[in-house]
Amino acid sequence: MIEIKITVDAALSLLLERMKFELRIRQKSGLIPSGLSMQNLTYKELISIIEVSVFDTIFLLPVEIICTETNLAQIVVSAVRALSKILHREEFQLYSQDQAQKIISDIRSYLESNLAETNLGRN
Length: 123
What we know:
This protein is mainly alpha-helical and 123 residues long. It has helices at residues 8-28, 43-59, 63-67, 72-87, 97-114, 117-120.
């Protein structure tokens, strides 16, 4: 197992930046009314933005880190739970290891299926 050493504050900062970017994209596309901030969104809208942001952030990591066993899920859980204080939403304290692991597993499955030796022959 590879242990990734990053502070909760650093992980939270990365997540918040990605969330702001995702919010702007959704506002430009008309999915969320312009002028609303993250504090004004419903829990359902926020958790959707969070999960997409987590997905995008993890996908930017090196493949070796994603495909090996790491403490990445725990880092994600800590960052999402830390959002509860920033966004004043207690619901984020309930974010579980299973939810984070599901996102990581989906990315890992996608990468592993595309890295199979049979796919390399097509390139």
